[in-house]
Write a structure and sequence with these properties.
By secondary structure, the protein is mainly alpha-helical. Helices cover 54% and strands 4% of the residues. The N and C termini lie far apart (51 Å).
Length: 151
């Protein structure tokens, strides 16, 4: 039975996909991650940058690697995100193109979210709270997270 097509439609397939990062590779990436002295299990952009630059890949490729691997867009890489970054760097070194968007198989299981969670989203739009939360986002933080790679 070909179960691949209906699974793609439901959106739950991503949770069943084996992670593209192999266990033995993950162990190597974890060792590099730990050697960079993560703080609270996170590495900042300026700690990851030298590792990425070390690969001698073009800066635009490395920028895309960062964009793809910083899955939660917090300007930091956790252990799994770092493994994704390393995986993409090694792909690029093997002359494989870095994808424009992260394939489902590369999203770490810890970062996979089912597409629909009934009851998780409040359905009543409260106009006041959404406005406030948008204003409280510091644009500086977003810029700071992006700058380490663009320089």
């Amino acid at each position: 039975t070909d179960s691949s097509s209906p699974l793609l439609l439901t959106g739950t397939a991503s949770n069943d996909l084996p992670w593209a990062v192999k266990l033995e590779d993950k162990a190597k990436y974890d060792a590099i991650f730990d050697s960079l002295n993560p703080v609270n299990g996170l590495l900042s952009g300026d700690k990851v940058k030298p590792v990425l630059l070390n690969s001698k890949l073009p800066v635009d490729i490395l920028g895309r690697v960062w964009e793809l691997s910083d899955i939660d867009r917090d300007g930091m890489l956790d252990r799994d995100e770092f493994a994704v970054a390393m995986f993409l760097v090694y792909c690029a070194l093997e002359k494989e193109p870095v994808p424009m968007s992260l394939p489902a198989a590369l999203v770490p299981p810890s970062k996979r979210k089912p597409i629909t969670i009934p009851g998780a989203m409040p359905l009543i739009p409260s106009s006041t709270s959404t406005k406030e939360s948008h204003q409280s986002l510091p644009p500086v933080g977003i810029l700071a997270a992006k700058t380490p790679l663009t320089q």
